[in-house]
Amino acid sequence: MKKKWYDYLWILSLTYLILGFFNILFAWLGLLCFFIPLIISFAKGNKGYCNRYCGRGQLLGLLGGSFGLSRKKDIPGWMKSKGFRYGFLIFFFIMFLQMLGNTCLVFTNLRDLKQVVTLLWTFKLPWHWAYHGTLFHPGVAQFAFGFYSVMLTSTVLGLITMVLFKPRSWCVYCPMGTMTQLICKAKNGKS
Question: Mind giving me the DSSP string for 157-186?
Answer without folding.
Answer: HHHHHHHHS-TTTHHHH-HHHHHHHHHHHH
